[in-house]
Amino acid sequence: MKKRIVTLFTVFLVAISSTAQKVDFEEYKLNNGMHVILHQDNSAPVVVTSVMYHVGAKDEQPDRTGMAHFFEHLLFEGTENIKKGEWFKIVSSNGGRNNANTTDDRTYYYEIFPSNKIELGLWMESERLLHPIIGQDGVNTQNEVVKEEKRLRVDNQPYSRFLEYVKLNMFKKHPYKGTTIGKMEHLDAATLDEFLAFNKKYYVPNNATLVVAGDIDINQAKKMIESYFGPIPRGEEIKRDFPQEDPITEPIKATAYDPNIQIPAIMTAYRTPSMKTRDSRVLDMISSYLSTGRSSVLYKKLVDDKKMALQVGAINLSQEDYGTYILYGLPQGDNKLEELVKEIDEEVVKIQTDLISEKDYEKLQNQFENNFVNSNSSVEGIASSLATYHVLYGDTNLINTEIDIYRSITREEIREVAKKYLNPNQRLILEYLPEKK
Questions:
Q1: Phi, psi dihedral angles at 197 (to 5 degrees)
Q2: Domain Peptidase M16 C-terminal: where (predicted)?
Q3: Looking at the domain assignment, is residue 11 inside a domain?
Q4: What is the pLDDT of residue 21?
């Protein structure tokens, strides 16, 4: 009877979230190719104006890495109508806040304003697109900013470069082998003409998705969008033809050193398919099963019970073209790195051999249901999701339907996907060690 009640309760939650969490939106294209997504939510007097550009670290030249992240900073320098240093002052003085972020696949800018400032947000984003001032003075200023960011977040942070070394060994042809922040010597060597060319190629309306979400009037928003963004000229079409990686058929062994750590770490990494695939979603569930929370399989076994590890986990780093599935551990005491690998491998083999329990499966479904609800709980989160699903997945309505994919994943699929991708002959084993004295 108890199991029956729990099951019915879960069904009830699913039914409620299916209805309450549906995100209504409208999307269309301007004549210049800019994709527009509108979401009306009048529950609070707030509006998000955001633009996602389909450009990231993978679009850079091999000897000019870091350009996309650099532009994340550079395009706050000012425009023909916004003086240098005034961008953030304008936003804050009008009760707003703003930010931007860059990945290997895209760059995202956004403002959050009181809803009566929607026109200001649209004007500022159109200014960034139409009238940016890209001069040597701004390049020099932001070069120092980026260098300081790299020193703080990468060079002087423990374990901050493990992903860099994983990607470097996992990808031999595809530009995912680089880092988002890039190499400082590449930015130092870049000419002003190269920065101008990067802007001209990628920061164009036909490579951009505008999302306006929150307390808006749809018809008024459309008129303002046409007024501010409609006249911007279309750019040249962007063609992408990234090299394909050869399959990994035998173990890759590598060693990396970090001067900021005292305790070594071990990573095993597997190349996996695009974030757009069903298999990638199954790998998400496997990650949660192995390492989400203190009751997860790896944490309970290696941290709580055997006390072999200080930290252990699984990461499904899913990206537009490929994914990287990473299992990692930091040993406790005298435990060896290879012993951690053996213990982690045992749990992977169990997933490949046996179906996870009904109880664990139900727990996973509840976790992903909760993630779905949380991701759509704020207008800021909704705006980001709408942009991401359109730009990287090509299906904006996944904001409503992706949870159905997770719900439909079976225990049998979890077993089969683990068999397909998480095999010793298809992986990198990276020892991440304190730098030699």
A1: -65, -40
A2: 190-367
A3: no
A4: 74
Structural domain includes residue 383: yes
Domain containing 299 equals: 252-434
Task: Specify the 3-state DSSP secondary structure of 265.
Answer: strand
Same-domain check for residues 93 and 134: yes
Q: Provide the β-strand partners of residue 269.
A: 326, 428
Read off the amino acid at residue 382.
Answer: I
Tokens of 45: 């007097």
The Cα–Cα gap between 316 and 292 comes to 12
**192-202 vs 67-74: helix axis angle to the nearest 10?**
90
378 within 8 A of 48, measured Cβ to Cβ: no
DSSP 304-363: IIS--EEEEEEEEEE-SS-EEEEEEEEE-TT--HHHHHHHHHHHHHHHHHSPPPHHHHHH
Residues 346, 222 share a domain? no
pLDDT tens-digit readout, 329-380: 999 999 999 999 999 999 999 999 999 999 999 999 999 999 999 989 999 9
Residue type, 384: S
Output phi, psi for 150, to 5 deg: -65, -40
The tokens describing 393, both together, are: 């997945």
**CB atoms near residue 165 (< 10 Å):** 20
Q: Rounded to two decimals, what is the model's pTM?
A: 0.93
Rounded to an integer, what distance in angstroms lies between the CA atom of residue 123 and that of residue 132?
A: 13
Indicate whether 155 and 216 sit together in one domain: yes
Q: For the domain that residue 345 is a member of, what is the CATH number?
A: 3.30.830.10
Q: Based on the domain organization, do 429 and 327 belong to the same domain?
A: yes
Question: Which distant-in-sequence residues (6+ apart) come within 8 Å of 116 by Cβ?
Answer: 45
Do residues 188 and 319 both lie within one domain?
A: no
Same domain, 304 and 216: no
